[in-house]
Write a structure and sequence with these properties.
By secondary structure, this protein is an alpha+beta fold. The protein contains 8 helices and 7 strands; from the N terminus they run βαβαββββααααααβ. It has one domain: endopeptidase fold (from Nostoc punctiforme), CATH 3.90.1720. It is globular and about 50 Å long.
Length: 266
């Protein structure tokens, strides 16, 4: 399913590029983005982080999502997370995510369906995580989090551990494994986000099966398919993004050339 195919549609005017200041790390960038988005009641909405890493694993995952784009270019994003925002001090916030590399010790992964709570500071390094976006969706943070226990116990519905293994097999080139996107197997954190928002009564990526979601699909919804929210009398997603990292791919089409140098070309 091609998600980011909307050549005649307008880009979401509430999704705005926010460039990094000189020597600014991702926590400092995030603080500026959160302050711009939070409004009068910061926790009356919820926040999704998208990040694009620069290591080989991240690039494999970014390339694996290219079939969701009409231009077939690699995604800007290799992972996502739910920001459990601390409205008083966003730099002390936590994130919920399902990392492909599960932590040693603690509760066994099967008992939590792979879900890990980490300090947001794990994404502080702006050299490791060059691409970053913070997107606010019109569902209260508490309502989204209410569905977390159900997801953690619900491996019969979405087995996030299967998704981990499939994506690692693809990323590592095991036994000629194709991109799991072709089999409707999404990135595990994105699938968790789909499930949590569904439990809160909102379709995060309209028309896409929960188990098939990905950071690219969430990005496409926020950037190109935002009128779904207007049509359903919901607030449009709003966000800030910074995407300096991309392949320098130029296939001769003026509208697509220079993507590596124009982060606003999404």
């Amino acid at each position: 399913m091609v998600m980011n195919y909307a050549p005649g549609s307008e880009k979401n005017p509430k999704l705005v590029e926010q460039k990094r200041a000189d020597n600014e790390n991702n926590l400092e960038w995030l603080l500026r983005a959160f302050n711009a988005l939070k409004g009068k009641e910061p926790l009356a909405q919820s926040y999704i982080l998208l990040l694009g890493g620069t290591d080989t694993l991240s690039w494999r995952i970014r390339a694996g999502q290219s079939q969701l784009r009409f231009d077939m270019l690699p995604s800007y994003w290799s992972t996502s997370a739910l920001l459990c925002a601390n409205a008083e001090n966003v730099e002390k916030s936590k994130v919920l995510h399902i990392p492909l590399f599960q932590p040693q010790g603690g509760v066994f992964a099967t008992e939590r369906n792979g879900v890990v709570e980490s300090p947001v500071s794990i994404f502080k390094d702006s050299e490791q995580w060059k691409n970053i976006a913070l997107i606010a969706f019109p569902k209260a943070q508490e309502d989204v989090l209410n569905s977390l226990p159900h997801f953690q116990r619900g491996r019969n519905y979405i087995d996030a551990l299967e998704h981990i293994l499939r994506w690692l097999a693809f990323a590592w080139g095991v036994a000629r494994t194709p991109t799991p996107i072709n089999d409707g197997i999404g990135l595990p954190t994105a699938c968790m986000l789909e499930s949590l928002y569904s439990g809160a009564g909102m379709d995060l990526t309209p028309g896409l099966e929960t188990r098939a979601s990905s950071p690219e699909a969430i990005w496409a919804t926020a950037s190109r398919w935002y009128k779904y929210f207007e049509n359903n009398k919901l607030e449009m997603p709003k966000g800030r993004f910074c995407t300096p990292d991309s392949y320098n791919i130029n296939d001769g089409h003026k509208k697509l050339s220079g993507r590596a140098n124009k982060s606003t070309e999404y």
